[in-house]
What does this fold into?
Amino acid sequence: MRRRGLLRTIPAMIRDKSAKKPAKDASKSDAAEKRAPASVAKASVAKVAKAPAGKKGVIAIAPPSFRRERALIKRGIWPIAGCDEAGRGPLAGPVVAAAVILDPDRIPRGIDDSKRLTAEERERLFDKICATAQVSVAVASRSRIDRDNILRASLWALKRAVVALPEQPRHVFVDGRDRLDTACDCEAVIGGDGIVLSIAAASIVAKVTRDRLMCALAQDCPGYGFEQHKGYAVPEHLDALNRLGPTIHHRSFFAPVAAARAKHMPWTVEPVQDLFAVTEVEVQVEASVEAGAATGL
It folds into this structure.
């Protein structure tokens, strides 16, 4: 009987020990991430943190850090700017780009990717960033977006924001995969607004600035709800486009806007010539040739 009881307790002991192993492995993986080069830092954005009391299985996302900037400062590289844009996806309004040089001794607490913050938090941090850092903003208008396309207009605005800084940086971090054509070194960081603190600060400045611009446009264009959705393709905006048609602030070549323009202003839509269509002139020419052949002329 004692052996059976012992055999029953052994599997339970094994399970208890195996349950503790993942914690050790997790600590090893965290240490490996710290030793990893900066090129793989984007893979460590999401980290499992200790769950708050009473909340099991909660996954916390690590906030952006000033680690990359400090590494450059140790090498004597300064100033260092982070830049980001807001407004690539909306159907209306401009793209707003911001560049920020944070003061290492006066970094406001709570800076994070603007998408993770509430509107109130963004407004509060916007004031603190502008009071303690070097900040510049550039805007790519709707007409530029229509002329150059959204990507080129965004890169143009980002470069203009960097050039407009009070002090020209020696290194620039930009969110995304495209580097900027700047006079200094530029490093593109995918998901940078959640990794690099300077980029996160720029994302807050760009987002707050654009939101304020869209609220101003809402007063000139009532009925579209710009003050609520900021021009994004939400159902309320699509419904307003279908009922009222596009405004001068809508981006002409975005599909929902083009469809609304064809419905409400068809005279503004240029017809596309069908290269394979047989025109009436060609039919008459062919008929005259056949008639001439029949008469022997």
In short: The beta strands are 80-86, 95-101, 134-140, 171-175, 185-189. The longest strand covers residues 80-86.
